Amino acid sequence: MVATPIQASTRYYRRGITKVLWVPTIANKQAPTRAELDAGTALDVEVGAMSGWQTTSGTVPTPALGSRFTPVVGGEITASDSSLTFYASKTGDDVRTLLTRETPGFVVWMDEGDVPAQPMDVYPVTVTAQTKIRELDQAAMIMCSFAITSEPAENVDIPAAV
Q1: Would residue 68 count as lying in a domain?
Q2: Counted domains in the chain
Q3: Looking at the domain assignment, is residue 60 inside a domain?
Q4: Distance between CA 82 and CA 146 in Å, rounded?
Q5: Rounded CA gap, 64 and 106, in Å?
């Protein structure tokens, strides 16, 4: 007998596919509505780099006197420091007017595009900083840092268009 193989993936290149939105309000992060998503701002067209946007789970040891082996159970869930880096505009009319420090909202990741019933991740966040990146021989950029304020809703269905 042979084990059933995992479903073969349809591999893709992220650029041009992945969508990332800034959404000011979402009533239920486990089930955002199409109207809430449509009220957001598409960020992917100006994102030049990204960092973080991952959750990890810690473990807690559970030793018992009757065994030398120490099993573990799942523990805390944390999110890494996260940021999005945008291109700056020579006119100053860019991400600085949208993502100001201390602004709460949601960053929504649609990794396989805005396709109904595909999965998306919804991160409740607060903007913590706008950092101007000043480098020689590089386009002017602004990195926005985010505090992830509660557990993200991962792999929730993208709602259909109305």
Answers
A1: no
A2: 1
A3: no
A4: 6
A5: 43
For 75-107, the DSSP string reads EEEEE--EEEEEEPPTTS-SGGGTS-TT-EEEE
Task: Tell me the per-residue pLDDT of 87-130, one tens digit each, with 9 for 90 and over.
Answer: 999 999 999 999 999 999 999 999 999 999 999 999 999 999 99
pTM listed for this prediction = 0.91
Q: Is residue 142 part of a domain?
A: yes
Residue whose tokens read 């007998």: 1
Task: Give tens-digit pLDDT for 59-78.
Answer: 999 999 999 999 999 999 99
List b or e across 117-128, with b for residues whose CB sees 16 or more CB atoms inside 10 angstroms. Answer: eeebbbbbbebb
Contact between 144 and 123 under an 8 Å Cβ cutoff? The reply is: no
How many other β-carbons are positioned within 10 Å of the β-carbon of residue 149? 14
Whole-angstrom CA distances from 75 to 56, 57, 124 are 10, 6, 21
Token pair listed for 155: 């792999």
